[in-house]
Amino acid sequence: MTSIKEQAAISRLLSFLQEWDNAGKAARNNILKIFIESNQGKTAPELEQEFSQGASLFLVRLTTWLRITYPLPNSLGEKKRHSSKEEREREMRCNRYLVEFLEVGGALTLLEILGLEKIKEEDKKESIKLLQIIANSGRKYKELICESYGVRSIAEFLAKSKSEETQEEVQVLLDSLLHGNPKYQNQVYKGLIALLPCVSPKAQQLSLQTLRTAQEIIGTTHPSIVHCVLKVLGTMHLEVQYEAIELIKDLVNYDVRFPLLKGLVALLTPSLEKSKLHSKILADSSVLDFTTHLPVFLQQAAAAKTIGVLARGSLSVAEDLLHMRVVHSLLAAMGNTDHSNSQRLASLTLEVFVQMFPVVEEHVRKSMGEELFQLFLESAEDLYRKIDSIQADILAANTVNVTKEAPGAATSPFSPTLMIPIGWNTSQPWKRKRKGR
Questions:
Q1: Are 375 and 386 in contact (CB under 8 A)?
Q2: Are the CB atoms for 122 and 77 separated by under 8 Å?
Q3: Closest Cα partner for 154 from 215, 95, 111, 217?
Q4: How far apart are CA 107 and CA 91, in angstroms?
Q5: Distance of alpha carbon 277 from its chain centroid, rounded?
Q6: What is the pLDDT of residues 276-333, one digit of tens each?
Q7: Model's pTM, two decimal places?
Q8: Angle 100-105-111 from CA coordinates, rounded to 5°
Q9: How far apart (Å, rounded) are the C-alpha atoms in residues 62 and 130?
């Protein structure tokens, strides 16, 4: 037989639920607001005591209301702002409430909210935070999100979101889905790769950052990652380019090293052939023609920069690049008078190879001619300012092939002892003292 105190608690619960059931949108928002204020900081057992062991009845009503009315933007914002931040976060930390929320389709509802066009960004951000709580509750909850096509919904939202703060919250969620989720970590990895071609620079930056973590966790590569990361090098955003280069530095240690290096070298000598339609429309507009080629030139410059970074960091990578005729391609890039940054970065990277390999110095001297080569030695970074049109044409049309005369090339083209200079500086292998410098 229940005590008077328990009967009073049950009566309050029934009255509260009846008030909720009979209330309209505005009244329910007010009930939620009062509930949050009066129960802020209470634990799950304290909430149960307050509701006479009937808190789940209120949770069901709340989630059902959300499920039925979430497509209506005007009503969703108030519910989420009042309920999700405090009350539902607190309830979800209790495994029982979390299970009950998921059983009524709570996770799927949160994911569907991300794709609604008329929902405010702030409300979608709250959905992401709730998904973070679910994912952080354990492996089976991460799997539930992924089984509900969550990775695709989350990735699409990251690409379309206009708020950098919200995008950073999405990154936290994707990172959580990567860890402790062996069944679906490859799905997250592929989703991140699929994000690289998107138009949002922030989404690209965050995806590249998270891909580095994913790559380390998974340990194997997906073939499409090479094309996608090389394509990102055409960005105008330096923060995105930096993250792409950092990922490339990691990828050269995996099985995609050869196609990755080969792709970088190929970007130094892009094909700029125009379509017939393009030629007819823009035949007399050099400015528009340059704009059309700009992404290719940006890729060319970024590839030159990346090759320099890789060569400075690893002698074996530098040797692999040397046998891919990187010297020929760098000289050709230096002849691109349409893009000075390509010339400048190609010159700086060529300087690295000249300093590392005597055979490269010999070939570059012959290709440039003594006068231009001396200017190159004086300041590789400013050389592009001093090159005339004839010299640029000579550089662009060079036929340098260092690999043919590299000692040991005939027997072992990737020999680790290829042309290592006498007095090699092991602490800074790209630096070698030369006469006249």
A1: yes
A2: yes
A3: 111
A4: 15
A5: 35
A6: 333 443 444 444 454 568 889 999 999 999 999 999 999 999 999 999 999 999 999 9
A7: 0.78
A8: 125
A9: 15
